[in-house]
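re: ur question from earlier - yeah i can do the single chain one, its not a big deal. heres the input i used so u can compare w yours
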Amino acid sequence: MMGHTHALSGAAVWLLVAPGLAALPAAGGLAGDLAPMVANILTPSELIAGALVCAGAAMLPDLDHPSATIAQTFGPATWVLSKFFNWVSGGHRHATHSLLFAAAAGVGTTLLAEHYSIGRDIVVILMIGLALRAIGIGIPDKTITSALINIGLTAAAFIMFRSRDVEYLWLGLAIAIGCLTHVVGDCLTERGCPVLWPLKHRWLLPWKIGIKTGRAFEVKFLGPALSVVVIGLFAIRLMPASL
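and the output i got, formated as tokens:
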């Protein structure tokens, strides 16, 4: 699937499951001392931040593809990182397109966020940047210019969330959900994914839709439909409150 399809699906899934986060233990409890249950639902600002983070995380598995949107997000820096992941994971749609990668990304992020606030902030900034780039922020065929625009907008969004005291207890979960959403999406395509990697068998969802990346169905129907779903979910979730 294309980058914007993955990002929109990640945001949509987050907006669907976010209300249920009120019933989950806080991140600190998951790591050790079983902190009390989260008493309140996410604030509107946290809901928006989570949607951006989950949308960005839905791009992470394609870090193994040097030509993918994610590799162009921050110019040469993400391209070099993508080349490295491509080599380590064994090529496109291998290790990073699996349940193991989604779980590792989520747990790793949670541990990082608990012990290093700077690490948490870097993850949030990267995910926001990936989300903005995936939904089309930038100038076509202008990689460096697009990267600079992305950096500016990402910084502005992060500063806004800081000013509203956004908590990131949900960060690791959002990362895992985003990665898993990407894997499920690619299982709808003709090539499928090695969901149980390191087993090499590629999984396709039972009905075998066989979506062809970038073809008419995705561009003219699926992408627009997901946009409507995301906008609708935002309206529903934010209607009772205001930023």
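Residues 26-40 have pLDDT under 50 and may be disordered. not sure if urs matches, ping me
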